[in-house]
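To: structure subgroup
Subject: Chain for Friday's discussion

All,

I'm putting the inputs and outputs inline so they're searchable in the archive.
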Amino acid sequence: MKHTDIKKLYETPKEFVGKSVTVCGWVRTARDGKAVAFVEINDGTCFKNMQLIVDKDKVADEKIRPAMAVGTSVKAVGKFVESEKNGWEILLEDVEILGECPADYPLQKKRHTLEFLRSIPHLRPRTRYFEAVFAVRDALSHAIHGYFRRNGYKYVHAPIITGSDCEGAGEMFRVTTQPWNAEYKSEDKYNADDFFGKKAGLTVSAQLEGEMAAMGLGRIYTFGPTFRAEHSNTTRHAAEFWQIEPEVCFCDIDDIIEIAEDFIKSIIRETMEACPDEMEFFNSWVDKGLKEKLDGVLKSDFGRVTYTEAVEVLKKSGREFKYPVEWGLDLQTEHEKYLTEEYYKKPLFVVDYPADIKAFYMKQNPDGKTVAATDLLVPGIGEIIGCSEREADSEKLKAAMTKRGMNLDGYTEYLDTRKYGSVPHSGFGLGFDRMLMYLTGVQNIRDTLLFPRTVGSL
């Protein structure tokens, strides 16, 4: 169907001004007057609507009347002209209905609650709110790929179906072809008859495979869906989410912290530049002061404190936190927000966490109690990046795994990377959907995903 994208009309208006153009889109709003009607349509190519000016003496009422129903899809032909109020608009000459929209269309009103829109995820991309969310999501994706490409990383695709739990948290979704009523005397026999001949699940992280790839390719990143069967019905958790995980060889904890800060600033800057209209929308309607907050991140040097120092700050704060603050306990969101929003007032790397609350693969520090791990905490969200130098010493790695009761036979290939030419290497994981929340001010992770998968909701 020959037509011109609305985005192109706004980007190169001089090319079309005074000429007849054909546009397609869905009716967003319509206002009827005695002699003139106004219809705004959007085709998804840009955040701005295009206004159609309808002279009722020139367009038959039986044609324009059904084309004014909100949600209707139309093909419109008219003269593209300059407008004092809207910048540009189209003087309608003819309109064709592509798809009728009845009166029970759920998006008749201009504003709906986000809770209501979550009940109709198949229609919510037609709202300005979600049009903006998914435009920024797209721009952020491109910014991430662009950063790694410019800096010499290879994009690798790790398996989604895996036999490894990575961090040993036991929150994997099972993958099976066995019938629902399969009866076996033992789990081993059940697994032996399954598709892979062993227990399989959806990946919780691509890190272990990423480390193995980096040991030959030097500098890699993965960007894909990950899955966790957590019963965490919060605004920050989803069962299916997207994660970015770079791995860098010949890189220690200080190097990876420097990379992480540069990465975060780069993708914020590029996304803001790519989506000025959408970012203005979020700044005005979702999180007032958002642009000022993000500009502050770009201009500031991220802070860095040890876990021990952070615990002391929290203890001396005089605050009554819901969760206890003691050395050896993980920091909770309320603790992270206090540190970033009230005490340090900027993004913050917390380093040298207790070994017992971190994963087995993290490099053990000389003190024997902590590991070379860091979390990047940001105002408004809390933890956004989990980062560490990996343990390169084969014996220390085996000891950490044995202490946690892990079966070393299931990690033979991973341990081989320490046996054959091990090197210092580091990496981090960035929750893509949480990063999108931070960039837009959106408060619920369900509103960053096209079809959110959460506990009890498919």
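Points worth raising on Friday:
The radius of gyration is 27 Å.
The chain has a mean pLDDT of 94.

D.
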